[in-house]
What does this fold into?
Amino acid sequence: MKQRTTLLASVVSVVVLGAACASGLEPAISEQNPPPEGGRIVVAVLPFRHSSKDARYEPLAQSMGEMIAGCLSEVDEFAFVEREELDEVLKEHELTLSGLVDNEMKAKVGRLLGARYILTGGVAVEEKKLKVNAHLFEVETTRVAQSESAEGKIDRLLSVVRAVAEKLAKDLDLELPEIKEEDIDKWPEANLHLMRGLGYYYGNMPDHAIAEFMKALALKHDHVRARYWNGVCYFDDEEYEHAKIEFDRFLKEFPEDELAPKVKEMLEVCATQIQERNSAEKSE
It folds into this structure.
């Protein structure tokens, strides 16, 4: 795969309009949005912070919370707020959200979503070594209740993510079912395929990566991160026609996503490259 110097940082704004939060909004639990049955632990997921010098890994940080949630969702006691629900609640209350820092703000957003915890954290990559820090912020107490970390080679992403998830589950006296990477096809979780695909991506195995991203999309057709990374694989290998198809669909389905500005940049490159190739073919 080509060197990924083309992947620029996608800027994630951390903005919450204080006026709406300060108005004492009630939790978003109603007949339309009831609490999960069985008293499960409801968790909302925020994008993780990126602290590496290499901007190529910033989209990985934005995907990390979803991947950890994918592992934790194997435990019946957990229930996760869908990203669509998060966006809908924020839009309804005139809020924007992409990684909160202030604890009171996080607690207010958590109450809006009826969440017990908010999953946050950070990602760092140095010399192909990945380190993930994850925190379970408790909405009721407005403090971090649990923090765990794990590290390993970037192309062994699944192992690192699973290790963090297992530690967080254990902190809550829960246990993840055992899973080996070679058995991943037996698991129906789209995020597990996303993880494996990213491992292949960073291991310079684009064909394998695309196959995993497609499996994720087959399980969850609106999987925003799988759609993004599928396009990136084609883009990095200069398959601009295929990349354009993926990125066009991304912007149609997820126009407000944090990665949309970056996708637009890559789409412009695709259009230029396709035009240049067509012109070269006509002149031959």
User: Anything to note?
Assistant: Residues 39-178 form a domain with the Rossmann fold fold (CATH 3.40.50.10070). The mean pLDDT is 78. The CA atoms of residues 135 and 249 lie 33 Å apart. The chain has two domains: 39-178, 182-284.
